[in-house]
Each structure stands twice: as structure tokens, then as C-alpha cells.
Specification:
Length: 270
């Protein structure tokens, strides 16, 4: 499943929910948590339930619901709402700090785990090994709050993203970079997405439709990358037959390690 672009949509805003059908994001995350005021959460559950049923979403998008934390677990009302929403594929678990297999057992939905506290980061291995986990992401603002730092130091933080990527990839989950809040700074967004892709992320979480095409582009292999990989595979396999394992291609050393990466891309594209 592609998760290059995961757009958050406030669960109490009917107009944005309707609009999200026509947007080209791989995943839509309907939010019941921080974009919905306390007094509007119950109505948001009802609105989402109706619109999900009523509207034609097509087979392509992953539909996700971000639920609310309550004590050490998650809101029972939200969990029950999830079980009533057939079209929801995945549940997004904010401020996760421990194994979440119980949520999978209760809902049967994929889990997208949002690490955004110091305790969550320390418990990453346990979280990533949760039954039903499909993706791991990082929430820079809540994380900064939890350690009394600031968001500038934690968005695009390579050290932390590297830990998220390692925990995710070692459990066959998608590592997804967190949101970028500066709505008018699309160049900054693009740089953040490039950094995340370079570190191994499959995609990025988004807050505005203008971020979608950029994420889709950055997290897809370009034609040049695909052509280059095909050329490396061809040249390396030819050399290998002559018992050569190290070759010069465009003034770069190519050996088995580069071949494996190129072969992996070529195989995935097929
Ligand atoms: N999902 C769906 N549609 C969205 C959207 C979103 N997240 N953000 C904006 N849009 C729509 C607007 O409704 C508007 O539609 P229209 O042209 O048909 O009227 C269009 O995209 C342009 O929006 P714009 O006017 O630039 O945005 P805004 O200033 O009204 O809203 C935000 C800015 C940040 C409030 C809005 O983008 C938003 O709600 N983002 C998501 C917030 C969220 O979910 N937070 C929780 C996770 S961090
Ligand atoms: Mg958060």
C-alpha cells in the first residue's frame, strides 16, 4: 500500500471531509483528536460515520481515523465508533507509549502509531512490534512539548527520524515523517520531505492540500532513478559473468552493495 501522502482532515468539518474525496492523497486521516474541540467530538463521530457511509470514496485511498487518548489507553467511544465505520482501513494512535495490540484485537484495523512523547520514543521497539501495526510516524510539536523543547528542533530531526525508520523497517512497517506546520513555505516542506526520504521514510503526514503533489513526487522514484538503476543492474550482471565484481560507472565505484540497491528498485518497479 502506498503511503506517500497522508492528509489530516478535521473530523468535525464537513466541507473539508467532502473535499478530501477529490484530493490525490494516498491516505486521508480523519481527525477526532487535536483539531476537534472537546465539545465537538461526539458530533464529529456522527458526522464521519454518516459521510463515510454516504459518500463514494473509491478503492484507492487508505481511510484512517485518528482517535483520542484517554488515560493510558484510548477513548472507548472512539474505539466503538471505529468498529462501526466499515470503510475505515486504519486507526491512527496518537501519543502512543506502549504495545497497542489490544486496539488491533478490538477493531481489526491496521495501526498507524504516532510517537510523540519521550516515553513513546524510549518504548519504540515495543510499539513497533505491536500486533496489527502497519506504520510508525512522529509528531514533532507534541514531542517538543513533552521534552520542553521547540518544534524547530524536532521537525526534520534526522536523529529521531532515523530511530523511527529503524524501528519501522525492522518490523516491516512504513516509516512516515510527521507534519510540517508552515503552510506558506512549500520549499521548506519539500526540503523536509527530501530529508525524510533520504533517511528511508515511505511518506509524510500533511495538513494542507498544497502539500500533496510535493509529497507524492518526493516519495516516488523518479524516471532518472529508475533508468539509472536499470543501467547499473545491466552493467553489473554483465561484469559478474566475466568474474568482475567492482566496476567504474560514470566515475563511481559500483559493486555488490550498489547492485543490491539497484536490483531492489528495479524489482519493485516491476
Ligand atoms: N483537508 C481537506 N481540505 C482542506 C484542508 C484539509 N486538511 N485544508 C484546507 N482544505 C481546503 C479548504 O477547505 C479550501 O477548500 P475550497 O478551496 O474548496 O474552499 C482549500 O483547501 C484551500 O484551503 P485554505 O483556504 O488554504 O486553508 P485554510 O486557511 O482554510 O485552512 C488549515 C488552513 C490549517 C486550518 C487547514 O488546512 C486544516 O484544517 N488543516 C488540517 C488541520 C488538522 O487536521 N490538524 C490535525 C493534525 S496536525
Ligand atoms: Mg499530536
Amino acid at each position: 500500500m502506498l503511503r506517500r501522502s497522508q492528509l489530516f482532515v478535521p473530523g468535525n468539518e464537513e466541507k473539508k471531509i467532502r473535499k478530501s474525496i477529490s484530493l490525490d492523497a494516498d491516505s486521508i486521516i480523519f481527525d477526532l483528536e487535536d483539531s476537534v474541540p472537546e465539545g465537538a467530538k461526539s458530533a464529529a463521530r456522527d458526522t464521519l460515520q454518516d459521510l463515510l457511509k454516504q459518500l463514494e470514496w473509491g478503492p484507492k485511498k487508505e481511510l484512517c481515523l485518528r482517535i483520542n487518548k484517554k488515560g493510558n489507553g484510548y477513548s472507548q467511544e472512539d474505539l466503538d465508533a471505529v468498529t462501526r465505520m466499515e470503510k475505515v482501513d486504519s486507526v491512527v494512535l496518537p501519543k502512543i507509549e506502549d504495545d497497542a495490540g489490544k486496539v488491533y484485537d478490538y477493531t481489526g484495523k491496521n495501526l498507524i502509531c504516532l510517537v510523540e512523547t519521550a516515553r513513546g520514543l524510549v518504548n519504540l521497539p515495543k510499539i513497533a512490534a505491536s500486533k496489527g501495526a502497519a506504520a510508525l510516524s512522529f509528531g514533532p510539536q507534541d514531542y517538543a512539548n513533552s521534552v520542553r523543547g521547540n518544534v524547530a528542533s524536532y521537525s526534520s530531526n534526522a536523529g529521531i527520524l532515523g530511530m523511527i525508520v529503524a524501528a519501522a523497517r525492522s518490523n516491516d512497517l512504513d516509516p512516515i515523517d510527521g507534519v510540517y506546520f508552515e503552510l506558506a513555505n512549500l520549499e521548506g516542506f519539500k526540503q523536509a520531505a527530501k530529508t525524510a526520504r533520504g533517511l528511508g521514510c515511505s511518506g509524510k503526514q500533511l495538513v494542507h492540500p498544497s502539500q500533496i503533489p510535493i509529497a507524492n513526487q518526493i516519495f516516488s522514484p523518479s524516471h532518472e532513478e529508475i533508468n539509472e538503476a536499470a543501467r547499473i543492474v545491466e552493467l553489473y550482471e554483465k561484469a559478474e559473468k566475466m568474474n568482475t565484481g567492482a566496476l567504474r560507472v560514470d566515475d563511481r565505484l559500483i559493486d555488490a552493495v550498489h547492485y543490491r540497491r539497484a536490483k531492489d528498485l528495479v524489482t519493485r518497479m516491476e
